[in-house]
């Protein structure tokens, strides 16, 4: 582009010509790189004491921050058990699992619920996959072994079939615990319209061991027993719809 400017100098007109550059079209604005994770910190949930078989009262929570201390969002967190055993619930899955994956929110925070499934200490690790950032660790301990049972229904095709099942960690619920461990039975409510009242009654005990009888366990009720000697107790538990009972065992070592 040429710009002409005419002026007078000593009575003589002078024509000055200047060249101006054309800025041309502008490109898109340069996007700033997202902040990089520099630290992974355990915030909540460590040092809890709970029950094997029951979700801990407080979830495990971590904070991911950059080198300035600001939270970093959308960072993948991989959760795993490194000692002991347990189940995670939350994040990218609905069922309980022995590993989990979550992502941080816009403030850099992420959490997951956890259920220890063994008596004693359990250690959980939270890490950023593929990152050199040091992982965070959580230590918890289970001092009570929970035997939670629920009433089950056969479905609309079998309206008269009712039974029961045990929840993890019991499974078939022939439980094995260290001597002196508190064992707790829990009648977890399955539905509000047909609750079941059950009881657990020991029918045999090892030498020096005491028999136990919970009495009626209404929904949400609990009963505790501490095996003080080594050996095996046989007990009958919740009955099926036909009145039959199943014999279970509790072994202390």
Q: What is the count of DSSP helices, taking H or I runs of 4+ residues?
A: 0
Overall spatial form: elongated
Parts with pLDDT < 50 across at least 5 consecutive residues: 1-12, 14-19, 154-162
Nearest-integer average pLDDT? 81
Q: What portion of residues belong to β-strands?
A: over 45%
Please write the string of helix (H) and strand (E) elements: EEEEEEEEEEEEEEEEEE
Structural class designation: mainly beta
Q: Give the CA-CA distance, first to last residue.
A: 95 Å
Helical percent range? under 10%
Radius of gyration: 33 Å
Q: What is the β-strand count?
A: 18
Could you name the key traits of this structure?
253 residues, mainly beta, eight-stranded mixed β-sheet, four-stranded antiparallel β-sheet, 48% strand, elongated, disordered N terminus
Overview of the structural elements:
The chain is an all-beta fold and 253 residues long. Helices cover 0% and strands 48% of the residues. It has no helices and 18 strands. It has strands at residues 2-9, 12-19, 39-44, 49-52, 60-65, 76-83, 86-89, 99-103, 109-116, 120-127, 136-153, 162-166, 175-177, 182-187, 201-204, 222-225, 231-239, 245-252. The strands form 4 sheets. Strands 4, 6, 8, 10, 11, 12, 14 and 16 form an 8-stranded mixed β-sheet that branches. A 4-stranded antiparallel β-sheet has the order 3-5-9-7, with no helix packed on it. It has a 4-stranded mixed β-sheet with strand order 13-18-17-15, with no helix packed on it. The protein is elongated, with a radius of gyration of 33 Å.
């Amino acid at each position: 582009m040429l710009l002409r400017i005419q002026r007078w100098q000593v009575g003589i007109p002078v024509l000055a010509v200047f060249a101006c550059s054309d800025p041309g079209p502008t490109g898109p604005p340069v996007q700033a790189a997202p902040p990089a994770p520099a630290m992974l910190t355990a915030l909540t949930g460590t040092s809890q004491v709970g029950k094997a078989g029951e979700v801990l009262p407080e979830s495990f929570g971590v904070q991911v921050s950059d080198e300035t201390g600001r939270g970093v969002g959308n960072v993948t967190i991989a959760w795993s058990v490194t000692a002991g055993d347990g189940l995670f619930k939350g994040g990218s899955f609905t069922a309980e699992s022995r590993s989990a994956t979550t992502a941080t929110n816009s403030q850099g925070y992420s959490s997951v619920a956890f259920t220890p499934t063994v008596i004693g200490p359990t250690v959980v690790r939270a890490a950023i996959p593929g990152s050199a950032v040091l992982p965070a660790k959580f230590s918890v301990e289970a001092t009570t072994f929970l035997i939670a049972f629920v009433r089950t229904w056969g479905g609309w095709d079998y309206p008269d079939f009712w039974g029961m099942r045990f929840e993890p960690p019991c499974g078939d619920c022939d439980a094995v615990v260290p001597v002196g461990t508190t064992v707790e039975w829990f009648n977890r409510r399955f539905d509000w319209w047909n609750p079941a009242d059950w009881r657990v009654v020991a029918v045999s005990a090892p030498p020096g061991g005491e028999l136990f009888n919970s009495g009626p366990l209404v929904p949400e009720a609990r009963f505790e027993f501490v095996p003080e000697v080594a050996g095996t107790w046989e007990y009958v538990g919740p009955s099926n719809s036909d009145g039959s009972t199943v014999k279970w065992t509790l072994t202390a070592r």
